[in-house]
Design the sequence.
């Protein structure tokens, strides 16, 4: 038998809601999601929460715990003081559906708008050759479990609903970087696209996304900054600009 | 009756894991208007939990590998109860399915010459698993998800391939002739009902692990596809074969059952008991003796020189390792928290562990305060996979029994893995047979086009009533309490080691549960109400549990994922028998014997006669001819 602890869980829907108090048993080694499940089983069977793998691999149980965006399944109860109240609320950046469940369709919409991987035209299946060192850069970004904690914490959209149409967010910036660094992606305009269509320019490198990433992906340093730098290179580098003008490189193809 | 949203599609794929997404891609590429029904958000399916890799005999690391070797390994792993044709197709087509993923954008780990790297795994003779560290399942699901997006972009957003996320199907609908006419379900977020009219349905719902207490499976694994198939007149094959993965976490209690990848052993990890002994050497069964090392020294040499040494017994098929661990724990040689030790820290240097097993490092560090580069892990068996499932035609994935237009692929289907699945053969299975099911569903639609079966309104009404019943019952039991009991019964009585008396007791208890499941009540409304969702999932979990228990009682031998303490040996007579479950008109599970299909002569000839004799009767081997060289 474990100790009884004080939880406050936000309950409600798009019409409003409030924090509800619960006294609930907590045992050795448990995580916040275990406690939410205990509440479901014993006190609030209709308490809405998303979860799947319970091992930090699927990114479903994203929530805000004492104000911090976290995965419920990877937040050990031992990180809190024994007398500390644990407050659990839904992700703030996305519209609430019910209780801890939010409408994250924004992220899927942005993914749908982004040009997919373009396979090289002249390489047959089975003939792809890439060096480990070259795939590792993109592999870091492919560790992403799409928990959307980075999207949720990013101040560009967290309290600015009006920025959402122009801004894709950190999750999609690492996707852009991943494809840009993919050794065989046939498209060459990933950086330009990040600037023109994804709104990477809105990011002012506060690194909040990197801090909350449960996969420890260096979102800002390894994806956003290189994408911004190279985007700047291409568009504003005076030598590149001069080259374009003198050799009319931008018109040769046409 | 409340409003029901209606859609018309050619093919409806139920399940959005690897098999479902691959089937949907194939159906759409064949020109079909295709719907993907996902119980969770898109990209969260249990496929993400697959860690080790995708088995395919590309021969990138050891050029001796080929489909015949893979076929042999698969049949051995399944103790020759596999549907041989499925094992053949799987071994032949897996490599092409992996290469195809690269054209969708997948980034596997590489060999020095830039090919896809392949790792060792239990039961596979050569390094065969294409992988990305220990997160191969995530790579697979994300790759397929992004391919779906890519097709949607090519389609110009006209909805010819649409994902219905957080949507649960509760009933398949048929016309009077038994042809599939559609599927009925609800959106989890709103609780609103939805009807899909379609002549073809592909089941890709995964497994049944949530019927067990200690499991590596997520909440979605409630046997929906198996139960939908049964209720639609189809049949389930060999439901007694449930794989208990040897290495699940055992501590802390809240993570008990979470998977520890077999790659830990493939990459050098060994199992030890409380006395420090590498006990797997004591548990090599006769049928495998000539392929496994007898001394620690030889086993250790194998990692660097596999051509001249035999493999370590830690890499026996999963059923063997799980039973051995269970026996050690029972004999009092377990670890402090009731498991055994899995040690890679003393055998591989820290940097290499971090590179090859990053998510295992992360998982143990964050959830158990264990640094796997410094300390051994504590592990024990956990319910992981069901080899049984919907009986399918091997070539097309078309479901058996009295139904047409129903297809199944991946874990929900049965036969491919026989009595035990090899690690890595699941991801390849879902690609090979997902594609096939999608394509054959498409040709079936072409066949019936112009004469599509129609949905009867009365069936829609009754599906709706069934779905609403738990919400309308004022007095009734809490579904969580019923679920808890179901899991406990299955764990205790239909678990890793089984006995006649306990299986009989389980059937009695499951019978009692039937009445309780029929009376559960869900409080709250229809909007994202997990209690209601569980109340509806319970009847699926119950019927698949009954099938598993009933078949386990019937099969009086031990084979792969079915161990009977009272019948400890394999019996060649039972190898010839498949156990097939169906529902009778009053909804009770019925079981019958059916012969296992006879393997084609030239495939039989790929094995040594001496090996086949361990599994088959003399009559079966009367016409045996060894394969000619080069086959």
Sequence:
């Amino acid at each position: 038998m474990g100790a009884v602890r004080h939880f406050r869980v936000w309950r409600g829907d798009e019409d409003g809601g409030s924090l509800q108090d619960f006294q609930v048993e907590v045992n050795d080694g448990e995580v916040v999601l275990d406690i939410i499940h205990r509440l479901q089983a014993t006190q609030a069977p209709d308490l809405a929460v998303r979860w799947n793998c319970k091992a930090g691999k699927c990114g479903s149980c994203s929530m805000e715990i004492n104000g911090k965006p976290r995965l419920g399944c990877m937040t050990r109860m031992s990180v809190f003081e024994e007398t500390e109240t644990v407050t659990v609320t839904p992700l703030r950046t996305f519209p609430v559906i019910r209780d801890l469940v939010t409408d994250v369709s924004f992220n899927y919409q942005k993914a749908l708008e982004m040009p997919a991987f373009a396979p090289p035209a002249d390489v047959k299946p089975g003939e792809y050759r890439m060096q480990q060192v070259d795939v590792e850069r993109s592999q870091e970004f492919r560790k992403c479990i799409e928990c959307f904690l980075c999207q949720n914490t990013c101040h560009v959209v967290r309290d600015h609903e009006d920025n959402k149409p122009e801004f894709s967010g950190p999750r999609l910036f690492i996707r852009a970087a991943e494809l840009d660094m993919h050794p065989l992606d046939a498209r060459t305009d990933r950086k330009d696209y990040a600037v023109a269509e994804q709104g990477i320019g809105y990011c002012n490198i506060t690194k909040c996304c990197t801090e909350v990433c449960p996969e420890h992906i260096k979102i800002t340093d390894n994806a956003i900054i290189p994408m911004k730098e190279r985007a700047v290179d291409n568009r504003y580098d005076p030598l590149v600009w001069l080259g374009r003008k003198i050799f009319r490189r931008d018109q040769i193809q046409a | 009756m409340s409003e029901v949203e209606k859609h018309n599609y050619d093919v409806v794929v139920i399940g959005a894991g690897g098999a479902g997404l691959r089937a949907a891609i194939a159906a759409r590429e064949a020109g079909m208007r295709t719907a993907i029904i996902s119980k969770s958000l898109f990209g969260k399916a249990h496929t993400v939990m697959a860690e080790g890799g995708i088995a395919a005999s590309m021969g990138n690391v050891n050029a001796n590998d080929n489909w015949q070797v893979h076929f042999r390994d698969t049949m051995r792993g399944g103790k020759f109860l596999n549907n041989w044709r499925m094992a053949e197709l799987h071994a032949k087509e897996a490599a092409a399915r992996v290469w195809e993923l690269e054209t969708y954008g997948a980034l596997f780990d590489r060999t020095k010459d830039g090919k896809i790297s392949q790792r060792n795994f239990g039961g596979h003779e050569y390094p065969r698993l294409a992988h990305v560290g220990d997160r191969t399942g995530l790579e697979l699901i994300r790759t397929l998800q992004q391919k779906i997006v890519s097709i949607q972009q090519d389609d110009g957003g006209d909805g010819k391939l649409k994902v219905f996320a957080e949507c649960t199907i509760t009933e398949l609908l048929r016309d009077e002739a038994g042809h599939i006419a559609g599927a009925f379900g609800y959106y989890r977020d709103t609780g609103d009902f939805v009807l899909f009219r379609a002549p073809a349905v592909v089941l890709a719902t995964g497994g049944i692990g949530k019927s067990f207490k200690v499991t590596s499976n997520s909440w979605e694994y409630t046997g929906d596809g198996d139960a939908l198939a049964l209720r639609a007149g189809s049949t389930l094959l060999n439901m007694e074969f449930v794989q208990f993965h040897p290495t699940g976490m055992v501590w802390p209690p809240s993570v008990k059952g979470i998977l520890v990848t077999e790659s830990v052993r493939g990459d050098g990890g060994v199992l030890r008991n409380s006395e420090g002994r590498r006990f797997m050497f004591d548990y090599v069964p006769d049928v495998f003796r000539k392929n496994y090392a007898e001394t620690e020294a030889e086993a250790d040499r194998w990692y660097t020189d596999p051509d001249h040494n035999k493999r370590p017994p830690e890499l026996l098929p999963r059923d063997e390792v799980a039973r051995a661990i269970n026996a050690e724990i029972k004999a009092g040689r377990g670890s402090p928290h009731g498991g055994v030790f899995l040690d890679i820290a003393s055998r591989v240097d820290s940097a290499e562990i971090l590179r090859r097993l990053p998510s295992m490092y992360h998982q143990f560090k964050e959830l158990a305060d264990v640094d796997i580069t410094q300390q051994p892990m504590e592990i024990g068996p956990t319910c992981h996979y069901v080899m049984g499932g919907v009986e399918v035609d091997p070539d097309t994935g078309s479901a058996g029994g009295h139904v047409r237009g129903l297809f199944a692929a991946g874990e929900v289907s049965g036969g491919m893995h026989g009595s035990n699945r090899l690690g890595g053969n699941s991801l390849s299975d879902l690609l090979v047979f997902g594609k096939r099911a999608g394509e054959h569903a498409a040709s079936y639609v072409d066949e019936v086009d112009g004469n599509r079966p129609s949905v009867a309104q009365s069936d829609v009404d009754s599906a709706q009533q069934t779905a609403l019943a738990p919400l309308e019952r004022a007095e009734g039991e809490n579904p969580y309490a019923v679920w808890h009991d179901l899991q406990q019964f299955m764990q205790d009585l239909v678990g890793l080691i089984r006995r006649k008396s306990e299986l009989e007791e389980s059937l009695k208890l499951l019978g009692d549960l039937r009445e309780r499941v029929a009376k559960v009540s869900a409080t709250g409304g229809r909007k994202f109400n997990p209690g209601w969702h569980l109340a509806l999932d319970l009847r699926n979990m119950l019927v698949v549990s009954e099938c598993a228990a009933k078949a386990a009682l019937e099969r009086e031998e031990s084979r792969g994922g079915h161990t009977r303490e009272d019948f400890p040996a394999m019996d060649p007579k039972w190898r010839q028998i498949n156990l097939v479950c169906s529902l009778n008109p009053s909804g009770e599970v019925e079981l019958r014997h059916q012969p296992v299909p006879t393997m084609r002569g030239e495939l039989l000839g790929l094995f040594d006669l001496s090996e086949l004799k361990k599994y088959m009767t003399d009559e079966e081997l009367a016409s045996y001819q060894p394969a000619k060289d080069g086959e």
About this structure: The mean pLDDT of chain A is 92. Strands of chain A lie at 3-13, 16-26, 62-65, 68-71, 86-89, 96-98, 101-102.
